[in-house]
Design goal:
single chain; alpha+beta
């Protein structure tokens, strides 16, 4: 069995090698591929990074693992699933996007799960369920294209729900809309409240 290669944080100063008289760095690659933080491809990872920073110092944050069975592990050991939505997308729109978070349930990945019985179980036979203790439904809530600043935490809000609460609201479903949260009277939190809210669940 081939073990996953450990990943270390890069600084951005690392240079590509064997490129003749050219010179280009990891930072330039990041600028090229990842400057549009409001794209659907990146916004989810950005939301996870925001949650990590609410819980930890920069030095304590490890490299993101996209193959984990949960997105973030809280300092108290609880698994956190982070979902993200935005009214404004990275394309021309006739209207704002309807806010609904999907993919709340998933099949366990045998290499990420502590249940070793899954190793010999086909993916199609694995049960779909809620895999995390806490669900953070993040919303980039800003609705003005002119003043949009995805780095401004005042333009974000977060609903923090336990697995049991998600299950109750969705009736054991796989998605939840903003309208449904509002019907249940569940209020969002700001970035500066996230740490205390998460750690007290």
């Amino acid at each position: 069995m081939y073990k996953r290669i450990p990943v270390k944080k890069l600084t951005g100063n690392e240079q590509f090698k064997n490129v003749g008289n050219k010179k280009f760095s990891v930072l330039e690659f990041w600028q090229y591929g990842f400057s549009n933080l409001n794209s659907n491809v990146l916004r989810g990872a950005l939301a996870e990074f925001i949650v990590e920073n609410a819980l930890r110092t920069s030095e304590q944050i490890d490299v993101r693992n996209p193959w984990g069975d949960s997105d973030v592990i809280a300092p108290n050991g609880k698994n956190i699933e982070v979902k993200c939505c935005s009214y404004i997308q990275d394309w021309d729109q006739e209207d704002y996007s309807r806010i609904s978070w999907s993919g709340l349930k998933a099949k366990p990945l045998f290499y990420a799960s502590t249940d070793r019985s899954l190793v010999n179980t086909k993916l199609s036979e694995r049960p779909i369920d809620y895999k995390s203790d806490i669900y953070i439904l993040s919303l980039f809530k800003h609705q003005d294209h002119v003043t949009l600043d995805i780095l401004d935490m005042n333009q974000w809000c977060f609903w923090v729900l336990t697995k049991d609460k998600i299950k109750e609201i969705t009736k054991d479903g796989n998605s939840v809309s903003l309208i449904k949260l509002q019907k249940f009277g569940i209020e969002p939190f700001g970035f500066n409240d996230l740490n205390n809210v998460i750690l007290n669940l």
